[in-house]
Amino acid sequence: MHPDKPATPGINPFHAMTCPLPITDYDTVLLGHGSGGRLSGRLLHDVFLPAFDNPLLASLDDQAVLDVEGTRLAFTTDAFVVDPLFFPGGNIGHLAVNGTINDLCVSGAHPLYISAAFILEEGFHLDDLRQIVLSMRQAADAAGVHVVTGDTKVVNKGCADKLFITTSGVGMLPGERHIRASNAQPGDQILLSGTLGDHGMAIMSCRENLEFETSLESDTAALNGLVEAMLEAHPSIHCMRDPTRGGLASTLNEIATHSNVGMVIDENRLPIHPEVKGACEILGLDPLYVANEGKLVAFVAPEAVAPVLDAMCAHPLGQNAQHIGEVVGEQPGMVRMRTAVGGTRIVDLLMGEQLPRIC
């Protein structure tokens, strides 16, 4: 507003200085619709849920729990479009198998079988494909699952980006386990299995050609062994999730909404490698929203904290596990963080896309 220009009668001049609300209605798909944040939620609720609405889908867990003639099964599906296909610590093949296993095991299920569909671009090198398929076999063997069916399609050069993989997985779910995103309760304590942001920043270090004294590596790993160790230590685990796209922040917000509870986490307790923190600072990213592919967050009863945390720390994939916060009854649907400087910050969902094609 020009200092010499008179204000328009009846109009508050400060209104011109306020920030408008972010646009949320679009006629086309944006990268932000794949972020795992607020736009992803809008796409889900505006397009997919109205079309496919049913009680099994309505739970909005990472897997469907099916009762087939008295046998409980967990069933999940996922698509992988990560760029680049090969990155420090793994490749798209490791990611596809491990990600499918993790979506099953955080329900308490024993993963058994996986399907894999490949969309190949004309001109893709067969040596690269062989390496990716071999890594899928190795990841499946390590986790004790089998790839039992699949499909292959080839599209014209320029109609895809090298390779996309879609997987589905099936696991057996013991009858006594009822671990759901809607089961978090006031008083539950929040446990995180390890450092944040390793996968996302490994991908970004490749894209941006960042160099650090210690190389960044993806944390991609199958978590079924860790989950079994935790459940053997104490059965009072109410909810688990692997915080993949959208990071820990998006996962906590989703669970807070589904369970109708509030959450308070402590910034000083969040484990983050210095290299990841430095890379985030360089790129202007928040580690809370950066993808992980070998971590889980668990909501446990207070009496379960010590035995479950001990079991996590004793497992190779939980050595950096931390007790990071608690579930509260007030301000349902809201996640707050006690900051390192003594204040409180609201941890909200992302509006746009922070890291596209991260998984």
Automatic annotation (TrEMBL):
<dbReference type="InterPro" id="IPR036921">
    <property type="entry name" value="PurM-like_N_sf"/>
</dbReference>
<dbReference type="InterPro" id="IPR011854">
    <property type="entry name" value="HypE"/>
</dbReference>
<dbReference type="Pfam" id="PF00586">
    <property type="entry name" value="AIRS"/>
</dbReference>
<feature type="domain" description="PurM-like N-terminal">
    <location>
        <begin position="61"/>
        <end position="172"/>
    </location>
</feature>
<dbReference type="InterPro" id="IPR036676">
    <property type="entry name" value="PurM-like_C_sf"/>
</dbReference>
<comment type="similarity">
    <text>Belongs to the HypE family.</text>
</comment>
<dbReference type="Pfam" id="PF02769">
    <property type="entry name" value="AIRS_C"/>
</dbReference>
<protein>
    <submittedName>
        <fullName>Hydrogenase</fullName>
    </submittedName>
</protein>
<dbReference type="InterPro" id="IPR010918">
    <property type="entry name" value="PurM-like_C_dom"/>
</dbReference>
<dbReference type="GO" id="GO:0051604">
    <property type="term" value="P:protein maturation"/>
</dbReference>
<dbReference type="InterPro" id="IPR016188">
    <property type="entry name" value="PurM-like_N"/>
</dbReference>
<feature type="domain" description="PurM-like C-terminal">
    <location>
        <begin position="185"/>
        <end position="331"/>
    </location>
</feature>
